[in-house]
Amino acid sequence: MRVMQKITLDGPDPVMIHDMLGETPPPKIAVEAELYLPEGPGPHPGVVVSEGLGGLQDKRERDYGRMLAEAGYAVLVVDSFGTRGYGDNGDFVRAMKVTEAMMLGDAFTALAALAARDDVDAGRIGIIGFSYGGMITQLAAYEQLARAYLGAHGPRFACHVSYYGCSIPRLNDPATPGAPVTILLGGLDRNVDIARAEAIGDDLRRGGSDVEVIRYDGIYHQWDGTDETRRWVPANLRYLHLRLDRDYGIHDERGRMKMRGRWSRRAVILRHADPRGYHILRDRETTKKTNDLLLARLQAM
């Protein structure tokens, strides 16, 4: 593997998804990312990595960047929180300040950047993500969202693998470009509503994707992390259920509150955040299983 390069990518910075569709385009932002390249001239398959709310971690996002580059992939690890000045803040501040629309913009910007490289196969670019980034990985599978950010004829992801992704949004328009989606969950993960995750899988199947929702019984959130003893994290999002309409409006399924901008988004999240939290615990055997599965899914692109 060549040395990692820190780069910036010019992308949109919308507060809400509907900001991408207005007469006035959203502001631009220089997205910070780390590029990991394999040996050889290519063209190589590519992978975009979307970080979790814990931020860019050496023993998670960067580890996957190195591992996948060694396996022959050109990898862009996106730092959505560091880009916006929240790299050193806690999970709560990141969730309040950096929106899903921003993180989706970063993911699609990274896809377009990889697809434009001569040493990358534009038709073989996947996305993986962890926790909040796992949610972004699932959302990036919908044609409605890809079209909002990249237009009707822009590149599309060829594979989606979500690690313990938050089960927050469902779409009224489930159509996908057809790329396969794999959703990996821990059976003891209280940050995820497993029944809702399975419903999201059903949505994506109806939309045209081959979907697997795989549950690992007895396993907690972030099984591929570094926590050798069980660690409690305050507040979980398993009861935050949102719906994205065909006109890109977002509402709270439980209370019918609408997300119109930054403040109403915060109000909806705070209303449904569960202070009972969730636990994180490393599991080496599950990590090996999911890493082997990840490589198999990417190789099938």
TrEMBL record:
Which UniProt keywords are listed? Hydrolase
**Entry superkingdom:** Bacteria
Stretches assigned to the Dienelactone hydrolase domain: 32-222
Q: Which InterPro entries match?
A: AB_hydrolase_fold, Dienelactn_hydro, FrsA_esterase, Pept_S9_AS
Q: What is the species of this protein? A: Oceanicola granulosus (strain ATCC BAA-861 / DSM 15982 / KCTC 12143 / HTCC2516)
> Which PROSITE patterns does the record associate with it?
PRO_ENDOPEP_SER
Hydrolase listed as a keyword:
yes
* Protein's GO biological process: proteolysis
Q: What protein name does the entry list?
A: Dienelactone hydrolase domain-containing protein
- What GO molecular function terms would the record report? carboxylic ester hydrolase activity; serine-type endopeptidase activity
